[in-house]
User: Fold this.
Amino acid sequence: MEDLVPAAAKLIGIRSTADRPEELHRALELVLGLVGPGFPVRRFTSRGKPSALVGADDPRIVLNAHLDVVPGTPEQFAAYRDGDRLYGRGAHDMKCAALVLATVFRQMAPRLPYPIALQLVTDEEVGGFDGTGHQVAQGVRAGFVVIGEQSNLRIVTESKGILRVRLTATGRTAHAAYPWLGENALLAVTQAIGRLLERYPVPASEQWVTTVNLARIETGNQAVNIVPADASAWLDVRFPPSGHDLVAELREIAGPGVRLHVDATGAPHHADPTSTEVRALRRAAQSVGYDGALLRKHGAADGRFYSAHGIDAVIFGPGGDGQHGPAEYVDLRTLRPYHDALCSFLRAVV
Assistant:
């Protein structure tokens, strides 16, 4: 797939982060340009986030890719190659995979005896609600979905759910020399965080358990000698299927005097590992020299929007490492096997 490297470098150079809507459009148009003319394109927009469905409205298979990335430093958007590695923001998560999926769609859609579609979205990194979620809410369905997130040609049939919550507290201001005259809202929030982390401590190693990440704490107070009267904290919670009301449990742990607001939620995702499609995808991966092992993924993915409607979706992508980090790269050696496995899978599905 050497011919994709220049396009990948150009796509990586587009700073397609959530706060740059014009760059989201640029990334989407670049990939649509790679697909080329001759296919129907259904466009969507939700809260400023553009997306597209290329191909059939009632596809047997959807190939799903997101083109947005997390923020990074300017140099991370200047792709560079070191041997078999292509470095840059989004190289692994998941711009190179998106280009492979677009190529596979362009090559295979006219040849298959059933309809397929390419789903391109630009908001997966901020929850997916305005891309895949919006399209599904507008009636987009499929028989099976392949999401090109990184997996080194392994197949992810389970991923955790996500809760994004805020803790807020309101206290009473006072002079810092007389703290007993006030109520410290910041202290109330940090004590609630302590209780939550005591219940859900950070695992020492990989475990299939609920995790709580403290992302940010804020207060409007700007003076050291004042008891803060307001405070907020943002938490990212990832959870496997549990069968109980996690929000109610978090609210109880936070305790009185601290309010818990749910900003976003997504259910855990599951696909039947014994389905015809998953077995065909495993055989396709094995046919190009990979084991096609089944995985569980700790990060939430857009497959949950399909899973909620009883549609199996899996993650199947190329190799690499460092996603969201300063040294993110895609392993270029995996792109050809990835392409060939996808083509083999599509030919095998009936």
